[in-house]
Amino acid sequence: MHREKIYPWQLFSLIFIFELGSAVLFALGIQAKQDIWIVVILSYLGAVVVAFVYTRLFYEYKCGLVEYLLKIWGKNLGSVISFMYIVFFLILTAVVTRNFMELLKTAILFLTPSAIITLLYIALITYAVMLGIECIARMSSLYVIIVAVLLVIQYSLFIASKEVDFSSILPILEDGIMLPLKTAFQITLEFPFTEIIAFTTVYPMLSKPQKAFSMTLAALTAAAVVIALNDIFIISILGVNETARISFPLYIAITMVRIGFIQNMDALVVIILVINGFFKVAIFYYACVESIQKLFNFKDYRFLLVPLSAFIIAFTMIYGRNYTEHIELSLKILVPYIQLFVQVLLPFATYIVSIFRKTAC
């Protein structure tokens, strides 16, 4: 395969859209009630520290995730950890796909079998991954402009609809700071902020490697602002109790917009959200196949796409007998335990071991 290259602006757009991805489907941190936006800020601050670790390892070893894991942990243990990341990226590809499959079924494709939706969605993403990260990055750099315009329109419509009551986010820190801190550490730090560990496989393609941290920081900041604003508007429109009860609160909030002839925006909103999801799933999928290629020294990863896509489709269908069970598995097991370990604790351990190895040398 030829050496792919992406530019700093493209990295920013990829991370920004990736962070919004499935995160905007939900009211992240609703466990903290009206302090939901504080949870997002706390998670963002923690994610900046984690992003520093990700990029520092890239700067030190000038290579991607699997390559520096092998150098730092040794061939045997490094291979085991690398394989664990491959499985992790593969599972997240399926889990995020399930989120958007459920959105499509809930919103517009009521009677379409889940298997058909998943098959078509994964087929499109597989084709994008086959074309390579350079192609995906170019698409994101154009699409991010559309996203920015749509976000401005969305917030303007929210305010103009007169459905917003900002008093719903008061009182601030009614139960103290500990609940937002706990929620941030257990949920929103891992989902969505430190999911950018997938970009440790993308950094080596950056045309200006020294821009890795600055672009990551800028994208995280922009995404945190959007997610916090979304949560504030959702709470202000639906209220805390209703938000906690609904599966897709942003979708419901947008459907409540009624301004003259501007109404029934359901289908358009779903299409935009699903496109956001396309980029997130594609990045996870790319991280998986790129890691396999590096671990096993394959010249090309494209021959892996058909069997892996079959696995993703199958896992998407069996991950939870219904959407409620799917969410419970994610929020009670995947996010607070597996993602916390893989995205936060293990990278810190890797960074510490790398320091000791350098000191010993």
UniProtKB/TrEMBL annotation:
Signal peptide span: none
Compartment(s): Membrane
GO cellular component terms, semicolon-separated: membrane
Keywords: Germination, Membrane, Transmembrane, Transmembrane helix, Transport
InterPro entries: Spore_GerAB (IPR004761)
UniProt topology in membrane: Multi-pass membrane protein
Principal location listed in the UniProt entry: membrane
Keyword Transport: yes
TM segment ranges: 12-30, 36-59, 80-101, 107-130, 142-161, 212-234, 246-262, 268-289, 301-321, 333-356
Superkingdom to which the source organism belongs: Bacteria
A Pfam short name: Spore_permease
GO process annotations (BP): spore germination
Family listed: Belongs to the amino acid-polyamine-organocation (APC) superfamily. Spore germination protein (SGP) (TC 2.A.3.9) family.
Protein's recorded name: Spore germination protein KB
The organism of origin for this protein: Caldanaerobius fijiensis DSM 17918
Lineage, uppermost ranks: Bacteria, Bacillati, Bacillota, Clostridia, Thermoanaerobacterales
